[in-house]
Design goal:
The chain contains 23 helices and seven strands. The protein has three domains: 387 residues, Orthogonal Bundle (Ammonium transporter fold), CATH 1.10.3430.10; 56 residues; 146 residues, Reverse transcriptase/Diguanylate cyclase domain (Alpha-Beta Plaits). Helix 2 packs antiparallel against helix 8 and helix 7 runs parallel beside helix 14. The protein has a five-stranded mixed sheet with strand order 4-5-3-6-7, with helices on both faces. 66% of the residues lie in helices and 5% in strands. It is mainly alpha-helical and 624 residues long.
């Protein structure tokens, strides 16, 4: 029978352990890149609610149901709490443990695992892998005389260094091997390259939450409100602290820059917490200190070992939960208080061997089953996202979500790649935040550069226009009208089509300049150019050949048609009215030539000869 204090302690402890979920979320989010942060948050929430459902459906029964030869529970599926209040409290506490085991692999395979396959593995872990091993070690925790085979042998794991943490780590190891490393994690020559997390302050915040939650994790495992909780929580704090201290100084000494690495301090603390979890009830303060120090060393050098093996664990989950979990489990046998050995009727060496057997069994079971299942899943439904999805980040690829900092980064990248500010999209400003202020500056910069780029384009267009047009009349200049003629001669020659030209100039133009001034002469040139330009066909070219001389190129036009067009031009100019002198008449003379495969010089020379013939015969006429 449990008293009210036991109920309250277990329920409150379960609530504290629940904080491990936001702790793991903050830790993983901070230690990965911003483009995957939303995916991390969704995974940590989703795997918890999924693991609770799976544990209620089947996991609780497999773990704590009536035992089948100490191997698996065979009752209490779809757990019913009617008139069993203690069962409800016990389930609550164990469900948050299952959620912890299921979320450990999230950090290890972060930034490249598909959301769908990750959820499938979380379900399998919380429904089968974790509960079955849990039955082996903790099967007798709810029903008396219901111990699993490891528990019967004397295996000790008070709060789950192996049962919870190592099980989760070995599932993570299988995932890391099958899914492979992140892009850019290892260079072609195999050298490990760090991928820094985007917000280590947030990661540290997550560790503070986990540190606190571990007091409920270890202390609540008494399942009774007893004074022994104080020793358990004190041991937990000592081991975590010395694990963190070890991580700090060992990285200071051995890291490439010989500086205290923020990730090593984080994982040293977590390694100390995992290490003490098995023996927090059985060891004293000195044992807790040693467990913490060795856990810090194991995590640091275990991380280096994984890199040597080219295994990419994004947050160090395998060294923290797996390697430190093994050490903590074996260390329970090394540092267990003597009176417990007497109470259990076992020698220290026997206890150590049992602890080693339990750790080995956990690895064979969790890694073996998860590796086989993941291999099968990966064969039919690849567990890794595509290359393009990994590059853009799982926030967008897996959830269609984004963040301001990612949008800012993406916009800058597009500008650099495209070298174009006109296509840069403005980013929504988060007012009152540092990224919002940066985004506001970026938007202003883009607007300014876009204006300058548009002005530069206009200037370039103006220069291009000036290069091809006559400055006064704004029609084609001599260079470009002759280039157009050369092109049309080539086309006419190769495709056997007609081509005609009209070369004309203004009669007595010098008289206009002398009598009315050069401004009037310029006006005559401009008005004639506008008049003729509006009269020509779209296929025709019109340019100023020199002084008062003009050239019209008429593709696909025979001589007779060109002659008619030329006379229409002449008549139109003859009828023009001039503002500088009422009733004044200006005429033109010209020559029309049809091309017959001759080169440009011959064709223009022929037209020029006909133009002078027209002048000799009285002007204001076209010769052909």
């Amino acid at each position: 029978m449990k008293n009210i204090a036991d109920y309250m302690w277990v329920i409150i402890s379960a609530m504290i352990v629940f904080l491990m979920q936001p702790g793991f979320m903050a830790l993983e989010t901070g230690m990965t890149r911003a483009k995957n942060s939303i995916n991390v948050a969704i995974k940590n929430m989703s795997d918890f609610i999924l693991s609770v459902a799976a544990f209620w459906f089947i996991g609780f029964g497999l773990m704590f149901g009536h035992s089948f030869h100490g191997i698996v529970g065979i009752s209490d599926f779809f757990a019913n709490f009617e008139q069993e209040d203690w069962k409800a409290a016990f389930f609550l506490f164990q469900a948050v443990f299952a959620g912890t085991a299921a979320t450990i692999d999230s950090g290890a395979v972060a930034e490249r695992a598909k959301f769908s396959t990750y959820l499938l593995m979380s379900f399998i872990t919380s429904a089968f892998i974790y509960p079955i091993f849990g039955h082996w070690a903790w099967g007798g925790y709810f029903y008396p005389d219901n111990a699993g085979w490891l528990e019967q042998m004397g295996f000790l794991d008070f709060a789950g260094s192996t049962v919870v943490h190592s099980i989760g780590a070995w599932v993570a190891l299988a995932g890391v091997i099958i899914i492979g490393p992140r892009l850019g994690r290892f260079s072609p020559d195999g050298k490990a390259k760090k991928i820094r997390g985007h917000n280590l302050v947030f990661a540290y915040f997550g560790v503070f939450i986990l540190f606190f939650a571990w007091f409920g994790f270890n202390g609540g495992s008494t399942l009774t409100a007893t004074t022994e909780i104080a020793d358990i929580v004190a041991n937990t704090m000592i081991s975590a602290s010395f694990g963190g201290i070890t991580g700090l100084f060992v990285s200071w000494k051995f890291s490439e820059n010989q500086l205290p690495e923020p990730e090593s301090i984080i994982n040293g603390i977590l390694g100390g917490l995992v290490g003490i979890t098995a023996g927090c009830y059985y060891v004293d303060a000195v044992g807790s200190l040693i467990i913490g120090v060795v856990s810090g060393l194991i995590v640091y050098f275990g991380t280096i070992l994984l890199e040597k093996l080219k295994l990419d664990d994004a947050v160090g989950a395998i060294p923290v939960h797996g390697f430190a979990g093994i050490w903590g489990t074996i260390a329970t046998g090394l540092f267990i208080k003597e009176h417990f050995l007497i109470e259990f009727g076992i020698t220290r060496s026997q206890q150590i061997l049992v602890q080693m057997l339990g750790s080995l069994s956990a690895f064979i079971w969790a890694f073996g089953v998860s590796f086989i299942l993941m291999k099968i899943i990966n064969h039919f439904h690849p567990m890794r996202v595509s290359l393009s999805h990994e590059e853009i980040g799982l926030n967008i690829a897996e959830h269609g979500a984004s963040t301001s900092i990612f949008e800012l980064s993406n916009s800058v990248r597009n500008i650099i790649e495209n070298r174009n500010f006109k296509t840069a999209s403005k980013i929504e400003v988060e007012f009152g935040t540092e990224i919002g202020e940066l985004t506001s500056y970026f938007n202003s910069m883009v607007d300014d550069l876009r204006e300058k780029e548009e002005a530069a384009e206009e200037a370039l267009k103006s220069l291009e226009h000036m290069a091809v047009t006559d400055g006064l009349t704004q029609i084609l200049n001599r260079k470009n009208i002759t280039e157009a003629l050369e092109k049309e001669i080539y086309i006419a020659s190769n495709y056997h089509s007609n081509l005609s030209i009209l070369l004309f100039d203004i009669d007595f133009f010098k008289k206009v300049n002398d009598q009315f001034g050069h401004l009037a002469g310029d006006q005559v040139l401009v008005d004639i150019s506008r008049n003729i330009q509006s009269s020509l066909r779209k296929s025709d070219y019109f340019g100023r050949y020199g002084g008062e001389e003009f050239l019209v190129v008429m593709p696909k036009t025979d001589l007779e048609t060109a002659y008619i067009i030329a006379n229409l031009i002449r008549e139109k100019i003859e009828k023009m009215v001039w503002s500088f002198c009422d009733g004044y008449m200006i005429t033109v003379s010209g020559g029309v030539v049809e091309g017959n495969g001759s080169d440009i010089n011959k064709m223009i020379q022929q037209a020029d000869n006909l133009l002078y013939t027209a002048k000799e015969r009285g002007r204001n006429q076209i010769q052909k």
